[in-house]
Each structure stands twice: as C-alpha cells, then as structure tokens.
Design brief:
This protein is mainly alpha-helical. The longest helix is centred in the first third of the chain and has 42 residues. α1 packs across α3. The radius of gyration is 33 Å and the shape is elongated. 81% of the residues lie in helices and 0% in strands.
Length: 144
C-alpha cells in the first residue's frame, strides 16, 4: 500500500512541476499579447492621451517583470531536478513511516475530543452555578 502512495506522490510532484512550467510560459505570453493589442489599438487612434501612453508603458513593465520572474522559475525547475528527486524520496519515506505509525493520525482527533469534552463539562458546571440563584437565609420556626 505504501508503494501506491509513493506513486501518487511522484505523480503529484511531476504534475506540480509541469503546471508551474506551463504557467511560467503562459503568463509572459499573456502579458505581451495584451501589451501588443493595446499598442495596436493606440496606434490607430488619432488623439492619444498621456494616460493611455502611461498605461501602455505599465503593461510593458508588467510583461518584462513577468518574463524575468518566469524565466527564473523555469531555470530553478530545470537546474534543481536532482533536489526534486530528493524531495520525492523524502515523500516516499514519509509515506511509508506514516503508514507504519497509523496511530499518529488519530492523536489530534483524540486530543480535540478530550478538549471538547472538558469544555462541555465546564459549560455544564458554569450553567449549573449560574442558575443556582442567590443564597437566602431561611429561618425555621418550631411550633409544637
């Protein structure tokens, strides 16, 4: 059963790495496309406002920043493949150990049940004390 969990971990790591790479390629493409469309729309106008030129410059800055950040992330993904394999080995070992010590998963639930029971007990005692009323002096008279 731990072998199946290890395979899921491996698949999960590869899916995350591939999704990160796809996002790193798609994000700059999107920003450069938006910048190009805005530039073409601006070049067809007869009257151009300074605010529109500033917006175009801002889009170009976003595209450049997105390109640089995504390039850095792609380089990290490519050059740290060996570390990713080490992480995969750690996930496999952690999955094996967690499967062997299955009781470690139930400890937080047991602790939460104990704390909840303690809180319910104190709520019951507090309500009992609160509703007991104020003490009154009772005098008994004997008439025999």
């Amino acid at each position: 059963s731990s072998g199946i969990n290890a395979e899921y971990g491996e698949i999960m790591i590869y899916v995350i790495a591939i999704a990160g790479a796809v996002v790193c390629v798609a994000c700059p493409i999107y920003f450069w496309l938006v910048w190009y469309q805005a530039k073409e729309a601006l070049s067809q106008q007869e009257v151009v406002l300074d605010a529109e030129i500033q917006n175009l410059d801002t889009l170009m800055i976003y595209a450049i920043v997105a390109s640089v950040v995504c390039l850095i992330v792609l380089l990290i993904i490519v050059f740290l493949r060996s570390r990713i394999m080490l992480m995969l080995g750690l996930f496999k070992e952690a999955g094996r150990q967690a499967f062997l010590m299955i009781s470690i998963f139930f400890t937080p639930f047991l602790l939460a049940a104990f704390v909840l029971g303690w809180a319910v007990l104190w709520c019951f005692v507090s309500c009992f004390i609160y509703t007991s009323g104020t003490p009154k002096e009772i005098t008994f008279t004997r008439s025999f």
